Amino acid sequence: MSGNNSGKGSGSGSGGGGFEYKSHGVNNDGNHYCARDYGAAAPNQNSYHYSNRDGSYYYSNPNGSTYYNDGQGSARYTAPSGARYYYGDSSNGQK
């Protein structure tokens, strides 16, 4: 894998103000990834996201929620409470 492991950034979100990049770059398959540290105040201190060449992407957010999009019309959101919501082709509302 190739990538970088340095830098601080400014960001906003329910996990707190700023963040520090832990790693980011493109892996050998051409997929982008980025991991960030939002600090001790964030429910999910080590959030990350990735996007794949097939159009799918995934976010693990500092507030503890996750979001996955398969790049083909379906998506899933999991709230910090654990409630799951489906959108698009697999849309069945809350699970």
UniProtKB/TrEMBL annotation:
<feature type="compositionally biased region" description="Gly residues">
    <location>
        <begin position="1"/>
        <end position="19"/>
    </location>
</feature>
<feature type="region of interest" description="Disordered">
    <location>
        <begin position="1"/>
        <end position="22"/>
    </location>
</feature>
<feature type="region of interest" description="Disordered">
    <location>
        <begin position="44"/>
        <end position="64"/>
    </location>
</feature>
<protein>
    <submittedName>
        <fullName>Uncharacterized protein</fullName>
    </submittedName>
</protein>
